[in-house]
Amino acid sequence: MLIAMKPGAPQQEVDKVYAGLMQMGTEVSVIQGTQQCVFALVGDTSKIEAGTFSANQYIEKIMRVQQPYKLASRVFQPLDTVIDISGCKVGGGHKVVIAGPCSVESEEQMIQTAVLVKQYGATMMRGGAYKPRSSPYSFQGTGEEGLQMLVKAREATGLPFVTEVMSIDTFDLVEECADLIQIGTRNMQNFPLLKRAGKSSKPILLKRGMSATLEEFLMAAEYIMAGGNSQVILCERGIRTFDTYTRNTLDLSIIPAIKELSHLPIIVDPSHACGKWSMVEPLAKAAMAVGSDGLIIEVHHQPEKALCDGAQSLKPEKFGKLMTSVHRIMEAV
Ligand code: PEP
Ligand code: MN
Questions:
Q1: For ligand 1, atom 3, which residue shows the shortest CA distance?
Q2: 130 CA → ligand 2 middle, Å
């Protein structure tokens, strides 16, 4: 971290800042220019609150040289993290394709979909039991019963599953049943929930907040990791932009950026990004081409009757077609 004093700041004020830094136990190098003094803080400055210094009228600028995240950073761990989800590996060259309905509606629907997506090559399934809906009048999910339906579908197919947790009160229950616990876009900065996830022994699928910067996204992962759970998989699912044609705008540039900055695996959700089934396959191919560690795709056996997100859900055969073209891209890459 660099702290630049204002040109012409009185020497006694410069000395006060220096003394304050020494008191914090930080190693400080002093760069004395002709007009201005700059302090360079050496070592781990992640716990230093930059705001404390901004309040000082004699300080001109504070610049972080290091990233504020540590555990999630590639500097901290140069090698890719590989996460094992009940035998299904993700990261470090291992790719995962997760498929299934937006929400679990019935045991029959869940098992039928799971059997088909497995047949077409999915290695994990998805299904929301607790649904975060924009309207309180929309279908809210099947809750605990839905979790049991997912368990049944896993028994029938052997596919591990991911499902979303929305609150701390249902965390234990979801944790008991799920192979991978999803924290959705609306909860990416729900800090109590992130802290609870940090105490879990299960891997976490952390979806990017719809207006979160890359740094905020990695800081949310850092919360989980700082709590003791290093098994975090990131998921890009589109962000809010000015365009309204698609549900969100898929930010594929975050994939190579995350690969540079972090060792954590990152997968892509093209379904929630575009909101239209016809755009899911091209975006899925693009995601794999830029280095995504996998995909999470919404599939419904009857999208026209789906209780949630039917417009973006693929019919199982269309998912099969997607898998064929995605495999070709993966081979080419
Ligand atoms: C979901 O995956 O079901 C979901 C609600 O996604 P997101 O949190 O990305 O909107
Ligand atoms: Mn959905």
A1: 102
A2: 11
- Tens-digit pLDDT profile for residues 242-270: 999 999 999 999 999 999 999 999 999 99
Domain borders along the chain are 2-63, 83-332
Residue nearest ligand 1's atom 10 by CA? 185
pTM of the model: 0.93
Q: Looking at the CA of 248, name the nearest ligand.
A: 1
Q: Give the tokens for residue 182.
A: 């999803």
Q: Which CATH superfamily is domain 83-332 in?
A: Aldolase class I (3.20.20.70)
C-beta of 318 in contact with ligand 1 (< 6 A): no
- Say yes or no: CB of residue 188 within 6 Å of ligand 1: no
| Ligand 1 in reach of 247 Cβ (< 6 A) | no
Q: Is 141 in the pocket of ligand 1 (CB under 6 A)?
A: no
Nearest ligand to the CA atom of 134: 1
pLDDT digits (tens, 9 = 90+) for 51-109: 888 889 999 999 888 888 999 999 989 999 999 999 999 999 999 999 999 999 999 99
Note the CATH number of domain 2-63. Answer: 3.30.70.1140
Q: Which pairs from 170-177 meet CB under 8 Å and 24+ separation? A: 170/130, 170/143, 171/196, 171/197, 171/200, 173/144, 173/147, 174/129, 174/130, 174/147, 175/200, 175/201, 175/202, 177/147, 177/148, 177/150, 177/151
